[in-house]
Task: structure prediction
Amino acid sequence: MSLIGAHYILAEDDKTPIACSAEEWAKWLETSEDRRVVARTNLGALGEVSTVFLGLNHNFGNYGKPILWETMCFEGPLDGEQWRDTSWARAVARHRLVVRKLWQIAMRLFPNEEPAIRDAAAAAFAQLGGKLL
Result:
């Protein structure tokens, strides 16, 4: 059984989802690993933040827009936390928000002892185009 609107690939701009068949989706997945990654930020002791295009609609109630992007933390204080979004722009904003949240955690956990951890988070956020202060 195939669900209508369950499978998506990305348009050439790597931002716009296009509904497709399960077969088209599977074929696209074989060659699209780099295109699926929206952002990946390694924050050392604070963990890694990864945002990717899933290609499968996680809006299982099928009400509203398809939920196709996921931001997830690996290791660190937010290990296993995940958030899902309905657009590339929201996914990028979520990624930046999570990196900022980890920086704020670092400021609380390591106010003076580990400036390198705080500085790594601040540098990563700056690379994403944001300012922490």
Remarks:
- The beta strands are 7-10, 17-20, 37-42, 48-53, 69-74, 82-85.
